[in-house]
Each structure stands twice: as structure tokens, then as C-alpha cells.
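Please, structure for the following, as C-alpha cells.
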Amino acid sequence: MGRRAWQTAVAVLAVLGAAAPTAGAAPQVPCYFIFGDSLVDNGNNNFIVSMARANYPPYGIDFAGGPTSRFSNGLTTVDVLAKLLGFDDFIPPFAGASGQQLLTGVNFASAAAGIREETGQQLGGRISFSGQVQNYQSAVEDLISILGDEDSAARHLSRCVFTVGMGSNDYLNNYFMPAFYSTGSRYTPEQYADSLAADYSRLLQAMYRYGARKVAVIGVGQVGCSPNELAQRSRDGVTCDEAINAAVRLFNQRLLRLVDRFNGALPGARFTYVNVYGIFDDILRSPGAHGLKVTNAGCCGVGRNNGQVTCLPFQMPCANRGEYLFWDAFPPDGGRQYPRRTEDLQREARHRRPPVRHPDTRAALVTRAVNRASTSRLFGSSVCELCVMTGITSAQGFLHWVHNVL
């Protein structure tokens, strides 16, 4: 996917130089925490036994640091957003982060992970959303120790931005994979969307109890149009699978209601919804307007639509990566890499920080402290005026939301 299309797919429609802060300026927020799956994983799966890893070429072919386990040729969505927010370095993976790095945020995402515990299990190890939330709770405990007390940690967390993007694998690597999972026969699409939304709500509220206040919830895109699903389900290799996309729309509708409910019921909550489904719809309807020529095949992969098997080690990808929407069977292409000096790349610690599970020992204390630290400037039911009906769809929308929840 080329730069223009990548900007659209990650809610960056403006010219990056105009949207990003000036060089040397302080970040717009002190910290950024990331939750998700292979679309944003940048190394956490390197520390577990899993087939869902991308720490080998040609992944990272256009990334200055080479293969890092980003499932892309270059930047991921959250790398671009970190740039927009003004961070000098990329947000590091939790598995390799030092204690001091927690102050500016970490990435908890894990490829193949889902909202449901069993999602993605055919691929081996992964950190489900509940595991990511438990790792966040562990990070908060560390922040309390670093900053000295719950109130200081609460004030710090109240100024942080969080992005959460889960659900794609719950459809692709669960509900629509009957050879491995029975959910497709046990739930109707409506029941499954209800179940996922209920689990999602419970875990997002656990994050809230541990201080998360400014949370962008990223909807699920048109995964029925991914090369993997086209290879398996499309007669002509072009027509998207409407059954999958229709099921995803049901889930996204519930996310919108969930965001509005949180903002109305949780003191100090500033949640918003990122309409990725709508963004992809715009791209697929007018690919040429985004500089794209190929939207139904991966730049790298094996089989029909380059979607039956993901990139093999040292496989030669397509040369015209800027014209492809998808890098491999699933994630969008990272487009062209931003110029960066070698010394500006994120320095990732060598020591493993394993997943941690523990009870909500300080949740109530952190909640009370964050509520004291928070203000209540809300812009519409979904926080920002541009997001009330359809969610964030542009760089201006994302930055508008950030500015007005500070």
C-alpha cells in the first residue's frame, strides 16, 4: 500500500508534515499505550512459541530497523500515530521494555490474539486481550512504584492516550474457521457479536479501573476482503465475502453503542470510535484516488491472491509495494518508510518481560485517584465533534480528539 493509501487506512488523510508536530517539540501527550493484534504487534510474539511471528525478511524490508516482528514491510498504524503525536521514538513492545520506558507507553499487542481466549490457538502462543490487559495492570503497578504513589500514577495515566483494536481474529481465526472452532455453529452472527461486545466491555472497564481514560476503540475493517478470505471464499478472487463483512458490521455497531455508554456512565471517560470499516470502504470504492492498483492480493505471499500462505522467509515481495493495499494475506502494506536517522530508532531492551496475571489489587485506588485528576471536557457523545456519528476518519479527527481531551 502506498503512502497516500496508508494515510487513509490509518486515519491520516492530511499531509504528515503538516499534521505532525514541529521537530524538537514535546509530544502532545506524555504516554501512548497500544493494544491489538498482528496489525500493530511490534515484537511481543518474539518471546513466545508461536507461528504468528514476523521477525524474518521480507518483513521490515522498508523499515530502517529491519525485521522486528511488525507484520508489514514498513510502519504500522500505531507507528504513524506515534509520529503524529510527536514521539521521537517508536513505542516499544511490552516484552522488551524497561521500567522507565513504561512512563512514555508500551505496546501490548500480540499477533493472532482475539477478544476470546481460544481465538488463534491453532497458531500457537499469543497474548489474548485479557492477557494484554493483565500486562497493562502489571505495568500500572510498576508505574506506581516508579512515580511513588497511586495519585501520581493516576495523574500521569489520566493524560495518556490508549488505542485498542481487537476483533478481527475473532472472526477470521475463530467464527469463520469451522475446521478448528465450533463458535460458527453455536452462535448466530448477532449472538456472537453480543458475546464479543460483552467480553470487550468487561476488559475495557478493567483498563478504566486501572486509569485508562482517553481510549480510541478501533473498529474491525472489511476483513472479508482480505487476500486470505478472497483466496478461500471468492469465486472470482475479487468479490469480498459478504457473510464475513456483515458479521463484522454487527460487531462494529455494538462498539459504537459501547463507546457512547462508557462516555455517559464512567466518570472522566473520553472514549471514541475509529471507523476503520468506513475507511476501507472508501479505499475499495476508489482505489485510484489513493494511488492503488491492487486491492485483492498481497504484495508478498503464496497461492491464490498471494493469500493462502503468508510471506515465506526471504521470499521476494512485489517491487511496486506502493500500489498494493495489502502487504500479505492480512495486514495492509506499510508503504514508504519515513526518513529517520539510525540513532532515532527505538532502542528495545534485551530482557524479556513475560506476560503477568494478577488480581485487581489496586484498581479501586487507581480509579478514585484518576477520577480526581480528570477533567470533564466532552465533545458530543463520542468525545470529539467529528466522531459523534461515524468515528474518527482522518488525522484531523484523531488530533482534534487528542487536543480536546488533554
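Residues 1-20, 335-393 have pLDDT under 50 and may be disordered. Residues 242-265 form the longest helix (24 residues).
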